[in-house]
Amino acid sequence: MTAGGSPRRSGGRLAAAALGAVAVVGAGLVAVSLMQQVGDPPQPALGSGTSSEAPEEAEPVAGSGDADPEGPARTADPSGASDMTPSAAPTAPESSAEAERPMTASEPVTLSIDAIDVQEDVFPIGLGTDGELLAPSGDRADLPAWYDGSPTPGETGPSVIEGHVTWGGRPSVFFDLGALAPGDRVSVLRADGSIAEFEVYDAARYPKDSFPTLEVYGRTEGPELRLITCGGDLDADGHHLDNTVVFARLVPS
Amino acid sequence: MRTTKTRTVPLLAATAMLALLSAPGAAMAEGHGGHGDDEGTHGNATASATLEAHLIELNDSGASGTAWVAVDGNEVSVTLETAGLLDGAPHAQHIHVGGKNQCPDPDKQGNGADGALQVSDAHEDYGDIVSSLTTDGDTSPDSGLAVERFPVGSGTYERTFEVSDQVAADIVDGKGVVVVHGVDHDGSGTYDGDVASDLDPNLPSEATDPAACGELVASQMDAMPQGGVETGDGSTSGLEHAGAIALGAGLMAAAGAGAFALRRRPAQK
């Protein structure tokens, strides 16, 4: 015991010191936790489940502010319907001055989006038993995944690449996806060594319970890309209520 | 061993046959390398394909919709999302094949009230009913006017049913046209009016006049994903490390309580 102090007093000091240490550890925990707070992921304004036109007919517009209040089903356009003759082959390049020439099929290898500092390997992913698009998990949870039932990037049609906005409580590969704006470039290195270069022309956020299937996955005139992640508020189980979708089309690389 | 072998060979052959037959289905489920290669299976009863349709209004109904259809052999799975239909009223809906395999021009004049397009007016465009998209029971053309088994108002319809080889082949070949009926021409909020239906004289024409139509064309997807994606396991928005903050705060509180107790102890003496 220290000199000049009664056992009780020194015990009291010890206790005080211990309490002080506990307080410091507690304060440290709080401080470190607070320093690691991450803001909201950026996201487009909430659409009502559709924009006013089917994406293949949409002009490059900023945001999804032109969303149609009538619900997900209103995507039809007479000209669009007549474009699609019943005999059209699934991947037949349709004549158009606007659409970039489609590339041959080749699976994506690497996804690069300079605007949001993304450069990651891409792996193929399929559908679950209920026909839902599976999400990356396990060792590859933080990698973007290409839906292997969609065209490969550069082929005619909407090639679909999804990624998590968060995983394990931390930002994941598509955390900043919602910050992409028309004109931003997305490039995909393919297995054959070629690069499919896309330009963003729209971004939108849709409630999952009224996901506009054909607007996102429906036929496109030329080669296009859909980048998909989660967004919006969380439900009681901590799942996002919305999906953020970025629309891009092939441009000369 | 030999007997086992002779037994397994035909079994293997049968399994291989099955695998071959179901290959298009497997390709749809797995999707690997299945892009744009389903032309080869057209016209085959075991064909599989995914098709889609954008429904546009007829008769100025204000209705619209999207539909996607998966054909796997004789099994047809239909998802039909509609909007803008008359609420509270049943809407007959079918897949048609025949005629020019197309939707009529929305401006086409018909024989209904004020030139409204009736079902028979569009027959030359989309032909006959091949499947009735009922909510339950029979889905054959016989149920074409089974008003009590069709969806009421707008919404999402999903059903899987069996069709004949011919119907499956026609749909896979892109000959199918999805038509939704029931138009409230006079805005009365119900099916009425003096003009009788060209299909059933006991029904007002409003109940059967086509409201929306879309041609089924081959999808660019091997299989249409259902709904959105689950690409977030919880947001980073809001509080991170809530547990650590709570623990830290708890420790600080405990230390505070301890200090309070220490200071009180001499006083109690």
What attributes characterize this protein structure?
heterodimer; A: 253 residues; alpha+beta; Sortase, Chain: A; 2 domains; nine-stranded mixed β-sheet; two-stranded antiparallel sheet; 11 strands; 16% helix; disordered N terminus; B: 269 residues; Immunoglobulin-like; nine-stranded antiparallel β-sheet; 6 helices; 9 strands; elongated
Explain what this protein looks like in three dimensions:
The complex is a heterodimer of chains A (253) and B (269). Chain A is built from three helices and eleven strands, in the order ααβββββββββαββ. Chain A is α+β, with helices and mostly antiparallel strands and 253 residues long. Chain A folds into two domains: 10-36; 101-251, Beta Barrel (Sortase, Chain: A). In chain A, strands 2-1-8-9-11-10-5-4-3 form a nine-stranded mixed β-sheet, with no helix packed on it. The relative contact order of chain A is 0.18. Chain B has 269 residues and is α+β, with helices and mostly antiparallel strands. Chain B has a single domain (10-218), classed as Immunoglobulin-like (Sandwich). In chain B, strand 1 and strand 2 (64-72) form a beta hairpin. In chain B, helix 1 (2-21) packs across helix 2. The interface between A and B is large, with 99 and 77 residues.
Give the gist of this structure.
Chain B: Pfam families: CHRD. The complex is a heterodimer of chains A (253) and B (269). Chain A is an alpha+beta fold.
Set out the fold topology.
The complex is a heterodimer of chains A (253) and B (269).
Chain A: H1 7-35, H2 78-83, E1 108-113, E2 118-121, E3 123-125, E4 145-147, E5 157-162, E6 166-167, E7 170-171, E8 185-190, E9 195-207, H3 213-217, E10 223-234, E11 240-251
Parallel strand pairs in A: 3-4, 5-10
Antiparallel strand pairs in A: 1-2, 1-8, 4-5, 6-7, 8-9, 9-11, 10-11
Chain B: H1 2-21, H2 23-30, E1 48-57, E2 64-72, E3 75-83, E4 93-97, H3 123-126, E5 128-132, E6 155-162, H4 165-172, E7 176-181, H5 205-208, E8 210-215, E9 217-218, H6 242-268
